[in-house]
Amino acid sequence: MTIPQDPGLCIDLHCHSTASDGALSPSALVARAAERGVTHLALTDHDTTAGQAEASAAAREHGIVLIPGIELSCLWKSRTIHIVGLDFDGQDERFLTALNQQNDNRWARARMIADRLDRLNVPDLLQRATEASGGDVPGRPHFANVLVQAGVVRNPAQAFKRHLGNGKPGDVKAYWPELPEVVRWINEAGGIAVLAHPRKYQLTATKLRELTADFRRAGGRGIEVSTSGQSSGDLGFLAELCHREKLLASQGSDFHFPGPPWCELGRIMKMPDGLEPVWHHFRTPVGNPAPV
After folding, report:
1. What residue ranges do the domains of the chain occupy?
2. What is the pLDDT of residues 53-81, one digit of tens each?
3. Distance CA 129, CA 140 (A)
4. Chain-centre distance for alpha carbon 236
5. How many angstroms separate the CA atoms of 197 and 200, rounded?
6. How far is it, in rounded angstroms, from Cα 281 to Cα 221?
7. From residue 206, how far is each of 80, 202, 203, 212 by CA, in Å?
8. Which class would CATH give 11-98+176-281?
């Protein structure tokens, strides 16, 4: 389940809690990770570090090393792309100011989703979606849950199919900053910017190579080579991209909720040999880097 560089470690550098769009609280998420043998975990909630303090306390209790993490949204050629930030200084003032702006963007999007779904006549839709998110900014999954509770749809999948999915009224594009700006935020906070789940953007191989090159030129340092829902072909292609752009290799389950066996904490496909792990370059390196 871990890559060959150090088989004694189980490292998961991408997962989500109720601080964004995950189903488990930060403490419950850490406990689940510990049960599954994870030794090093990064909680990478969307555009927020609100769950870090709770996760850190739980990590100490369960003997897990918690790496500072976040997943930031940005734009590349008008497409929404996600950048994982790892091992940054969570008290950096410029970084916190940037996160506040991201938070404002997310609230503007949530209000617009609620406005567009007003025709469904669900009382207090935004308030209920906010409660479903634990008081944080609600995303489309939270709105879907409220629509289920209100009897508008039978299940979340139907909510997306009819009201929230691509091209539907609730499909509101957020006002994200451009990719180089987000990479700069992470770098200035002393962290490592990692291109998240590259195969999930449904880009052609040529476009994905272009994205990866632009990301590296912007100061990005890593790429997720192994994450959930990938084929062995994806793994090989991303390893080739990692080599080509001289990036650090990262991995993560992108866990959101219990259930799917293919998306579980610590359950990650082995990456090919010869890649340089991102965790060897943390401020406190993890594992045993190969001698130069």
Report:
1. 11-98+176-281, 118-164
2. 999 999 999 999 999 999 999 999 999 99
3. 9
4. 22
5. 6
6. 10
7. 17, 11, 8, 10
8. alpha beta
